[in-house]
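BACKBONE STRUCTURE TOKENS:
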Amino acid sequence: MADYELAHPLYLDVQMMVSFLAYLEGGVHLSSEQTVQKEKLRAGKPNREGEMKLPSLGALLGLESSLSAESGHPVAETAETRVARHHTAASLFNGLYAFLHQDDAILALENRDQLAAVTPGTFVKLSGRYTGNPLEEMLAIFTQAMSYMGDISQSVEDKRSQKSMNRRSGNPQNREQAGQSEEHPYAEMAEQFRQFEQSIEMRFMRKMKEELESSPIHDVVLETASGVRAVLTVSSEYYDAAVAEKLSSGDFIVLGKVTRVVREGESINLSRRTVVGKMEDMSGSVTDAMTNIPGFNLQSNEPFVRYPAVQILPMAIFV
């Protein structure tokens, strides 16, 4: 069995990682060069005119291979290759993670009993199911639902407009058709949607979505098998929609620094990066409004993470 473990980071705070590496190693080398010399014997005399170029791996490394058409005494050849090796962010992380692991510098946080001994600044690692941010997900579903409702409302308006045109038509057949046509089956729902669209809660929800998307920091949640929830304050610089999709509903490992331990009776509000989240009285009514979209029944997810929980500034989320 190999004595190493290869980690693949899906989220990686490169600035934090490089600063730690620079301190531990007295600087960070992102690339290195090595000169390799090889000597071999070949038959024949050097004859520039009779040489034929041969494609080879050496050509890709900057070497030229040739074969002389003339035979003779063995001739020594020396080939020199300069090889450049470049580190990637993932390779640097693997090196740092291996060092920290071997040096026992990481606390493996596995159950709630350990929270009493954890303090801000502790370097921790924990494994669990990524659940994202329920408020952001709810707002995303809400936006999609509103798009559907907008299409339904437009369909109702189109049918009413057509019916009105038929009534005013000079064609008796069209006027008769207007009198016989029934109301759109979703007319009542469309009316409720129009009223809801003008509500103050609707405006707040749109503003909340804008604020969460433009925030430099996102709060996402990872829950361990033992029930400990970790609020990860990820940087928007390294966290985008593609990263969120890759993390969606999977089991991952988090490595980072503890910034807060949630005690009994405390909680973290996942809407805290919005104006509404700072208004406790309004926050609840806006969340309730999202679950009562006309024609849709959305599951309510309160935007609070309660004890047992910990807040972490993550260096990496990886597998």
Summary: Residues 131-318 form one domain. The mean pLDDT is 80. The longest helix spans residues 134-167. The CA atoms of residues 272 and 278 lie 6 Å apart.
